[in-house]
Design goal:
Length: about 240
């Protein structure tokens, strides 16, 4: 297992995908304020370096449409509930960031004007140019999608230099390393390898959207303290997913 020691990845604008699970702590569901604060600390450190940062927040720690559908709920209805769950996480993260004096804006794909701005692409870009961390909530606004796809979509729209996917492990493995000690860790993969090997990192729609627009994806362990900052310096462990070199 080799450590990535590249020069600084020198990104000017990035999108960080924070899954609901990343905010959950050790419990089976819900939100752990300490985890939210740890993620906010890392984001705040990166924003302080002058990198423009936007976030897509998941909701799987609270509600997933597909899980509700498996128990008989209408899938689309469940997905709308899932999208609302992401807004709860976004408000928690916004609060944690603002307690650290980071200026933020939450923008939602489903309008809820009394708590957040509606998503308007050019306005989001302007916020980032002014140094605000923009938190995109409510996924794509459409059922049958995931927040991974929302992350690829918004990263393309914002013309980000990379999509950083914070996960529970330090990169992409051939199998789940928590269950299989022989799982191999990759330091770099192509989009097509991820799709062809059906590697469980992001859904196919998200990978395809990144591939069509040559958006690099960097997968790292968001639970390691300071991991986001380290990845931005090209340090620590991560997997890059890029076009074939
Ligand atoms: N969701 C959706 N459309 C989207 C994004 C999310 O319908 O564009 C719903 C879907 O039900 C999903 C839930 O919101 O299960 C929570 O998002 P996700 O599972 O992607 O969260 P994460 O796994 O990142 O915590």
């Amino acid at each position: 297992m080799t450590e990535n020691r590249e020069q600084s990845l020198s990104y000017k604008r990035v999108l960080l995908k924070v899954s609901g699970e990343a905010l959950m702590g050790s419990g089976p569901s819900g939100i752990d304020p300490e985890m939210v604060d740890a993620v906010a600390a890392d984001i705040s450190a990166v924003a302080a370096t002058g990198v423009q940062v936007c976030l897509v927040v998941g909701g799987g720690n609270i509600f997933r449409g597909i899980a509700a559908a498996a128990k008989g709920m209408d899938r689309a209805q469940g997905d709308y509930a899932g999208m609302l769950a992401t807004v709860i996480n976004a408000l928690m993260l916004q609060n944690a960031l603002e307690r650290r004096s980071v200026e933020t804006r939450v923008m939602t794909a489903i309008q809820m004007a009394s708590i957040a701005e509606p998503y308007i692409r050019r306005r989001a870009v302007r916020h980032m140019e002014k140094g605000r961390v923009v938190i995109f909530a409510a996924g794509t606004g459409n059922p049958f999608f995931t927040t991974d796809t929302a992350a690829a979509l918004r990263a393309n729209e914002m013309e980000c230099d990379a999509l950083l996917k914070g996960t529970q492990v330090d990169g992409v493995y051939s199998a789940d390393p928590r269950r299989n000690p022989d799982a191999e860790r990759y330091s770099q993969l192509t989009y097509l390898e991820v799709l062809a090997r059906d590697l469980n990192v992001m859904d196919a729609a998200a990978i395809s959207l990144a591939r069509e627009n040559k958006l690099p994806i960097v997968v790292f362990n968001i639970h390691a303290p300071g991991a986001f900052s380290a990845v931005m310096r090209g340090e620590g462990l991560f997997t890059r997913i890029v076009e074939a070199s």
